[in-house]
Amino acid sequence: MYRGELSKMQGAVFLLVLLGAMSGREMLHLVHLPATTTVAENSPPETPVHKFSVNLSASLSPVIPGWPLIINTSPLTDAFKVNWLSDTDFEVVTTGTEQLDFETGPNIFDLQIYVKDDVGVTDLQILTVQVTDVNEPPQFQGNLAKGLDLYILEGANPGFLYQVEAFDPEDTSRNIPLHYFLIFHSVNFSMSANGTLFSTTEFDFEAGHKSFHLVAGVRDSQGLEASTTLHVNIVNVNDEIPRFTSPARVYTISEELVSGTIVANITAEDPDDKGFTGFLLYSITTPNRYFVINQLTGTIQVAHRLDRDAGELRQNPSISLEVLVKDRPSGGQENRMQITFIVEDINDNPAMCTKTTFSIMVPEREAKGTLLLDLNKFCFDDDSKAPNNQFNFTTPSGVGSSGRFSQDPAGSGKIVLIGDLDYENSSNLAAGNKYTMIIQVQDVAPPYYKNNIHIYICTKPENEFPLAFDRPSYVFEVSELRPARTRVGLVHATDKDFPQSSIMYSISMGGASLQYPNIFWINPQTGELQLVTKADYETTPIYILRIQATNVEDSSSVTVTVNILGENDEKPICTPNSYFLAIPMDLKVGTNIQNFKLTCTDLDSSPRSFRYSMGPGNINSHFTFSPNAGSNVTSLLLATRFDCASGLDKIWDYKLLVYITDDNLLSGRKKAQAHVETGTVTLSISVIPHPTTAVTTTARGEERRDEDYKARGFGGNNSDELRL
């Protein structure tokens, strides 16, 4: 019982303590802010500026990681940031991103520091930072700050050399003077308090006065110092003439040296700078294209081909040059020397020919012993002296040349014909009438240069044989029924000359008709004669043609007779070939209808060869012809009567197609084998049921029939009215 009461009392005490603690920090807030603090100018990164802490809210919620933050600055700057020290302690430090400069930048910054816990409770306070001035040493600027190179000509009078300048960052108006001095004493230089550097000695480069190292210092009014280095270089003055040290003045060299070959080495020295000859500059003052000199080393090299056998060197093989040596590119001391190169001849040119390939045409009947080619007219040797410029010719060799060609005399280069070149000779044909020779032209002196000469000899054919047809004349036959492009016959011409050239055939005369300018065509390559169009026996039964054969050398003509074979190719023609007739319905059977007759002719058939038959339209076989065969004249008869009462006949207008065939005289076997032609005639017949007027006939057809109907009281072309 006692323990229970004690536990309750302890719980009450803890609750009172907790409530008391919460009453002291009901809200999150920044401690030690707002505040004002200072920081020295030019402070390095992470310099402490101000420490503060955070009182948590009643919920004891922690500050969100990354907070507090500087959210705004006035003026705007990135020079400050907040570092964590613990969960509730923080510090403002410098970032080093921006230099804090009391003299040139803002001196006061207002920083808004914002904090937030993880339940969203926030606080915002201001930290005012004042930048304090710090005394800075003087500074050298630009190249002077890094160290400076100065130059003095040797022998120059002592005096002003350079004005050294620095500035004090604390003295923005540049009103406070600075004090300048040399940190290390020098007997050759001095510096005034205002920074003027003087030389106190006349320097001699050759005596060893070549460079000096000085350190210049500057001090401000508060004793802060800075320094920089000055490197003073003594410039050598050129006052001595260079001297040539190479002994040779004449050089003998061979022609055709490779470009870049060293042919001389010119050397010199400068007393001004003894032992350092690399500072001398060499040049050739004489205009020339053969040599160049290395301006630094003095070596002379071949720059262009030295041809002893051509141009100026063939007349004068000596080349004189003037060499100039200088110790400065310009304005220095110089000296000159004459040297001579003598170019010697070598056997460097092979015997050459303006032509190395010859093509010669020789007529096949050319006489033996004929000079075909003299190579001496085309060959030469450019070397300037004997024996380097002498040559001869080797014995010719080559396919097909043996026994046909020779060099006479030997080695002379004169090619003569010694054999047969007959173009039609079988052995020459085997060689193709083309012959190849190879002859070498060679030097008589070492190293015995050689060059090949190729000679191609072709036999030129001559026209020895005439162009002739294989027959004295030709006779061909062709049916008048054959179509265009039918082969009529073949002509052929030959020429015994070789090479055999192509022969072209043409029709030079004949082959025309009244209807066509050309009945025949001949293939120009094969000589095949063809029809251009069908021939007509009845118009022209025989053609006499003149065929011409032509090649590159000759031409020949031959007579060609073409007999046209007559055939039955004409159709019978009858008059009239169309007709209109009107007949009464009650016309008697066997009556010649309106005395109508057909009269027929055929250019290639007998008048007794015609046969007549009815085609479509002769319904119920009412009409026939008499005679129906064996005559060129026939009559139209009514074969059967018209029967309209029983309904057999219902047609009153007949369109008859009449066939006239010219095979009446042929037997059945011959009809099956022979060509038969058929003509046609069209007849229009109107049957009049109850005629009231005289019936007339006309060859004009329907127009005349309409007039007859109208005369009988019927409308034009109205068969229904006619029946009524």
TrEMBL record:
Which InterPro entries has this protein been placed in? Cadherin-domain_protein, Cadherin-like_dom, Cadherin-like_sf
UniProt keyword annotation of Cell membrane present = yes
- Example GO molecular function: calcium ion binding
One GO CC term on file: cell-cell junction
Q: Which residues form the signal peptide?
A: 1-24
Is Transmembrane among the key words of this record?
Answer: yes
List locations, semicolon-separated: Cell membrane
Chain intervals with Basic and acidic residues compositional bias: 700-711
Q: Which is a GO BP term held by this UniProt record?
A: homophilic cell adhesion via plasma membrane adhesion molecules
Q: Where is this region: Disordered?
A: 695-724
Query: Domain Cadherin: where?
Result: 31-140, 144-244, 245-352, 354-474, 470-574, 575-687
What is the stated purpose of this protein?
Cadherins are calcium-dependent cell adhesion proteins. They preferentially interact with themselves in a homophilic manner in connecting cells; cadherins may thus contribute to the sorting of heterogeneous cell types.
Q: What is this protein called?
A: Cadherin-related family member 3
Phylogenetic placement of the source organism:
Eukaryota, Metazoa, Chordata, Craniata, Vertebrata
